Structure formats: structure tokens, C-alpha cells
User: Fold these one by one.
Assistant:
Number 1:
Amino acid sequence: MELFASLPDYPALVLSPLTDTFQAKHILLRDRVKIGRQSDSESTATPRNGYFDSEVISKQHAEVWAEDGKIWIKDLGKSITGTYINGRRLALAGVISEAFELHTSDILELGNHTNNEDNCDLRHRQVAARVTCLVTAEEASSYAHVEEVQRLNQELSAAHKENEEHKANVEHLNYMSELHKNDVARLERENAALRAEFDGLKSSTPCVEPKGAALPQLAVDPKATSALRRWRKALLCC
């Protein structure tokens, strides 16, 4: 399977997001395409159309099309917040702008940031994108190559991140294993010491037979009893 067997459709306008307001768009421009806010099921925002899920643009905000080997845009005068190319507003509010040519690497901005009522916290972000214009087969092929390289770099980065996380997990497990080994060794030493202490106390405890007793009884030293309890507790801990 060839790497670039399927080229992107063209002429087309590619919008790469500069804010987290939308997913990258590849808009085919065989006809004029409206740019605007999604308002119903027929205008749901997708990577292939000109609709955005944004409150800062109007339902019919702008229009883009391809003509004479170029890509053009105009503001439809429906929005108060306007349309900007590289920081320049295309027209005043309520005024339909003239056609402006878009170029690759232009910054296209739709609407403006809006704040909450207290004017302190950001409520809605401006739609901002870097433009890529695809009007020839050569441009489409070049874009496909760049897009594929970016995809491979993203996969490589994700694989590297996953590998680093795996290494960190292995190191953590090795560390916990060493702690467990140390705990086991410590408990074994404590158990051996208790055994030795108990055996010593047991061998030194005399057996006496009181006068008149029917059966011999073991006179147990309290220290031996305490050692026995500690030994049994240590065995349970192991």
C-alpha cells in the first residue's frame, strides 16, 4: 500500500485550530461554502464543513470559495464581532465586505473572546485558525506528505510516552519488590531470634513435683511465656 495513495480533495481550505474551539477542518470548495455557527442538526459542525460550535460567531458569518486558482473569503455582515485576516477586520459590523484572498499561513479569526458578566473570567473563546490553501494537485500532494509526517510523529511520540510510562511502572515494581524482600528478611531474623530466646528459656525452666501432687507440673517462668507469645505473633505476621 502506497503511503500517499489517496490525496486530499482540492480545491480546499484547511483550517488548523489555534484555540481549543474546534477540530481541524478540511473544507472542499467546489462550491461556495458558508462559515457560521451550528444551529440545528443540518448545520452540525464536522471536520468537512464550515460550521463551528461557537457562540462568538453568527449563523451566517462568512463565505469562502475557490476561483481562478485562488481562495477567497468575505464577511457577510451578519456578525457584530466580525472576521479578521492577520488581525485586520474585513468590514464593520452590519456591512458585507469585499472579497479577500486567503494565503497559506494566514491567521483567520472569527468573532472575539467574550467574558462573563463580571468581565473577569473568559466565557467564550474566539475561533482562530492557521490557513492552508489547496488549489492545485501539487499543493494537495505536498499537504498530504506533511500531514502523514505529522501523523507518524504523533504516533512515535505516543509510543515513546507509553514506553516511558512502562519503564516507570517497572522501576516502581522493582522498588516494591526490594522492600518486600527486606521485610521478609527482617521478619525471618526476628523469628529466628525469638526461636532462640524461647528455646533457651524452655531448656532452663526446671520441672518440679510438689509433695502430694498426683501428676508432675511444669513450673513456667513468666519470661518464657512472654517469649512464646512473641514468637507465635511473629509466626502469624510471616
Number 2:
Amino acid sequence: MQRVRWISVRATRKQLEQPVQKPILSSNSKVFQQALQNRQTRVCLEMLPQVKVNTQQQIQLIEQLFESNEPNKLEWIEKLGTVVLPENMYSWLFQLYYKENNLVLAQKRWRWMQEHSIPQTTRHMNWMLKILQQNKMEHESLKFFDECVASGIEPNFDSWGQLIKCVGNGSLPWLTVDVLKRAQDHGFPINRHLLSFSLAAFAKQGITGGMDFCMKLAEKYQIKPDLSIMHTLMTGYKNSGQFNKSLAIYQEIQQKHQPNLQTFNIVLDVYLKQKDYHNATCLFESLLESPFQPDLITFSTMMSLSLRQKDYQKLQFYFDKMQDYQIQPNVYCYNMMFSAFPLKQQQLYDTMIQTCKPNQRIFATLLSNALKQDTLEHWLRVFEESKIMADDIIYKFMALNRDLGTVFALACKHEQVDQDLYDYCCLKLGQEKVEDLTKNVLIRPTRMPLLSHSSSQVNVVQMDPPPIVQESIKQLS
């Protein structure tokens, strides 16, 4: 009689802890391929854990994701994008980073391309410059541009224009002159395109010396001011407080050019800053009878004018009128409504979140109103539950109005301390106590200073040309 041999099968602890993997069936692969051919992107994404996807299918699915309305498509693309993609798809990817304003992923992808020896083109560089400009990183933009040129990427006119916008976006408008000189040295002569960006950088800060220099260059290179340049000059003089000069250019536009809606919007803003409410109202009424349709800027300017006059009835009128023109109010308009009508803020908030994402300014206004109405706890819960606002801003606002020691300890517990709150508490509670509470807490960069004793660094705009650009100014002149 043959003896039966019993085999004892014992699973090790390591084997038991491993997740049970679903078998990859050939039938699933066929269904996946069929869904891919039919451009059923959602079905394909849901099937990804059950199928083995080849490189070509990954590329095809990424291409479909670019064209889809998938809410988390950037996250999916990052998971799938570990394969080498066609050159044009990297341009789409950087464009998507720009649209989503995701600097971290853009920088990570740029490094990944370098590590995998994937050619980086002028188009990729230009999109990266746009993302850096979006995040107001003027110093980093200059460094990045120099690294690209050193690596062999050839800049084009758009590259130089984008670099001018990057450095002129913050506290370095005079460096745009240096960029103009460098562009000229690289064989890109000063043209309307580049000069307009440099002029806009000075106009934004109201630096009339820089604006005058740009206009001298325009004369030297025979660039005749068009309506766009005239608008930039109006804006610059308005920002520098020279309202009469701004209105004088408006008179010149009426004689030599055909004014458009942007012209009238700038003039309205000039009247607002002059507190000339009568002329602003007259201009708005004449605009309603003209061929031009008022836009969001027009209505927000008139709302701002009404708020300054404390004419809340007129403010409500412009807010309602805007919607008659099928114009969607933005967060700036809603913030004025919250300021004027604190008792209506719940109703207004419910309407706003259907179309707008609240920002820090909205948050501060709502909580200020709530503090006066003793509804602060309710609004803190609303923001925390919705996850719309950054928690560190909540703690900063509470620190202004509640027991600071308790609030700071709570912020440390939830790791919601930024540099502004840290500095303020060092001043009020003592550095030793604050350092003890924040031993294992990551201090975040300040995004919105709400506290009065912040020592956060603020960029000071250079009103006069620094020594570094003096030589460029001399050579261009």
C-alpha cells in the first residue's frame, strides 16, 4: 500500500502581508485596447490596475488625456509619463503645467528630461519661462535662461520677450534694458514686440524715467507709437500719480487713433484715483450708449468707485447690471459686496463658490465681518471643511483676535506655521518659547502677510537704474 505524503503549506508573515494582485487577463487587455481605440479615456484609466500597458498605449492614452476634461488629468499624466514621449507632447505637458500653475512638476519634468538625455527645445524653454513669470521668480528666470543658452538651446524673439516680462514682473524693471542689449548682441534687433514689454514693466511700477528711455529708443529705432503703446503710457503715468499726463495722452488718442474699450477703462481708473466721481459716472453712461460693451474691468471700476463713496445702492446696481450683460463677477467684485453687505455674506458666499474660488483677500474680509457678528466659529468651520483656503491663513487671522499662545500651539500641532506667524509670535511670546514649540515643525514661506509685525522680506522696486545696467543704457542710447 502506497503511503500518502502530506505536505504542510504554511504562508510566511511576509507573504500574508503582500496585497492580493488581480490577475492580468488577456480578455482585459482586449477590452482596454478597444476602449483606447474608441477614445473612452475614463474606462481606460479605471482598467489600468488590471492590464499591462505597453509604451505605445501609454503614449496614446496620454495624448487622449491632453484633449479630455478629466479633472485629475495632470496627476494621471505624471503616472503614465515615465516613458519617452514625442517632442510635441512635452510642449503640451509644459503648457498644462502653465495652465495649472504647477511650478514644482514643471521643474521636476525639466530635470527628468535632462537626466534621460531628452532634447529640450526653445519651445520648452519658453513655456518654462512663462511658468517662472507666473510665479514671479525674476532672479530664477535669469539664471534658468543663462543655463539654457549655455546648454545649446537657441532663444528666439519669443524667448527674449518672455525674459523681459519675467524680469520686469517684479522688482527688477531696469534689468529689462540689459535684456534688450543682450538680445541685440545675439542678433535680435530692438523691435516693437520687445520694446513694448520693457515699457510695460516700467509702466506697471510707474517709473517714468524708464518709460522716457523706452520712448527715446522707439524714436531711435523708428518705432511709431501705436494704440497699445499709448495705453501703456497712460497706465504708467496713472500709476506714477501724473494723472494730467495720462489724460493728455487720452486726448491725443482721440485725435490720432480710434479709442477702444481699454482706453475708456484706463480713463475710468484715472478718474477713480483722482476721486473725480462725476466724470467717471458721465464717462460710464456715455459708454453704455456707445458701440462698446462694458466688460468686467469697467464694472469692477464703477463698483470700486461706489464703495469709496459708500453708495451701497449704486454698488448693488453695478453688480446686478454686470449680470444683465452676461458678465460673471470675479472674486474682486464679491469682496466689495462682502465689505458693503456683511449681513448678506452667507447668501453671497453660496453664490460665489459656484463660479469663483475664494482667495486670501476674500477670506480676510469674511472673517473680519464674522468677528463683528460673533459668527467666527461658523466661518472657520466653513473654510476648514471646504479646504478652500490654506489653514495657515486661518491660524494667522485667529492670532490677531484670540489668545495667541493657544492659537500658536494649535498651529504647531497641525504644522500650519508660516514665516509671518513665526516672526509675530517670536515678538509677542518670546523666541525661546516659540523655538521650543516649533522644534519639529516645518516653517512655510509667507504668502499673504496679515500680521502687523512681520519681518518678512519685501522686494523694493528700483526706481533708478542700478550700476549694472548703466553700460547697457549708454550703449543702447
